[in-house]
Automatic annotation (TrEMBL):
Domain of life from the UniProt record: Bacteria
A UniProt-annotated Pfam family: Acetyltransf_1
Record-given protein name: N-acetyltransferase domain-containing protein
Database matches in CDD domains: NAT_SF
InterPro entries: Acyl_CoA_acyltransferase, GNAT_dom
Gene Ontology terms for molecular function: acyltransferase activity, transferring groups other than amino-acyl groups
Residue ranges of domain N-acetyltransferase in the record: 1-114
């Protein structure tokens, strides 16, 4: 299936922030069901962070989604994100709804008996 045929694909919900000819930020959203949407990707070039660009992109996306009839937006983020993203989401009026825990285990050859 081509990307443009995927459920929720809506290219008008993808935006770039430009300074002259340089992309300095982006935000991609997709529509879900029941008037809900997801911010799937948000990024700001490191040299342009802490200037309000992430917040501006979020607010712009919220406006686009509202025009599309969307009443609720969510996104997923690492709760230990070191870029300051959580502060941006909170400044945009978003609230934590849930947290996830990830478990890891390094599986090495010397651990082979543990795996069998």
């Amino acid at each position: 299936m081509q990307r443009t045929e995927r459920a929720g694909f809506h290219p008008t919900l993808w935006s770039l922030a430009m300074v002259e000819d340089e992309v300095v930020g982006f935000i991609f959203s997709k529509k879900g069901t029941d008037n809900k949407a997801e911010i799937t990707h948000l990024g700001v070039r490191r040299s342009k962070r802490k200037q309000g660009l992430g917040l501006a992109l979020l607010q712009y996306a919220f406006g686009q989604l509202y025009e599309e009839g969307i009443s609720k937006v969510h996104l997923n983020v690492d709760s230990e994100n070191i870029t300051g993203a959580l502060r941006v989401y909170e400044a945009a009026g978003m609230e934590v709804q849930s947290k996830f825990v990830r478990f890891d285990k390094e599986v090495l050859l010397e651990n082979k008996e543990e795996v069998q």
